[in-house]
Amino acid sequence: MRPQPRLRTALLAGILAMTLTACASESEPAHPPHETDLESAPDFHGGKPRTPETEAIWDDAAKRAAVDAATATMNAYVSNRGKTRDAWWAALSPHLDAIATRDYAWVEPSAIPATALTGTVVVTAGEAPTLAYATVPTNAGEYTLTLSRKDGSSPWEAGRIEPANGSR
């Protein structure tokens, strides 16, 4: 004789409740958390020794490097005429940080109004020596770039490229 559907449902609910109660009553985790001694941890950095980060400072060399990065980025960004989208992206993407690479991957280069730089790039220091802002004059108005770097020996990368007046 088979149990009635209501009885079967009640039995399943009871078994489920007991199972969940048993799981919730365990006060000790099944596996204790691992403690890692960072000094003795193996190096998984591709088998290469890790190099310490270079402290970033804002000086003339950092400013020149930021100007060069902003100029190269904007030259790639505005060189959108007569190129395929793939060629434009191949020129621009190496100048972008990881987030900008994701964000700008969908830009249609033919929609960018600027086609040439028209003046001197001006860079100002950001809130930290790893952050800078660039103002770049183009034939479609000024653009503002947000640049960042991981540390003092890392290259500047663009995180944002926007018309200075905020329009798109």
Structural features, described:
With 168 residues, the protein is α+β, with helices and mostly antiparallel strands. The chain has a domain at 60-163: Roll (Nuclear Transport Factor 2, Chain: A), CATH 3.10.450. It starts with a helix and ends in a 5-residue tail after the last strand. It contains four helices and four strands; from the N terminus they run ααααββββ. Strands 1-2-3-4 form a four-stranded antiparallel β-sheet. The radius of gyration is 28 Å and the shape is globular.
Assign the structural class, choosing from mainly alpha, mainly beta, alpha/beta, alpha+beta, or little secondary structure: alpha+beta
CA gyration radius, whole angstroms: 28 Å
Biggest pleated sheet: 4 strands, antiparallel
| pLDDT < 50 runs, ≥5 residues | 20-45
**Order of H and E elements:** HHHHEEEE
The strand count comes to: 4
> Per CATH, which architecture of one domain?
Roll
- CATH class of one domain, named Alpha Beta
**Envelope shape:** globular
Count helical runs.
Answer: 4
End-to-end separation? 74 Å
Percentage beta strand? 15-25%
What is the residue-averaged pLDDT? 80
Q: Helical content, roughly?
A: 25-40%
Strand order of the largest sheet: 1-2-3-4
CATH fold-level assignment of one domain: Nuclear Transport Factor 2, Chain: A
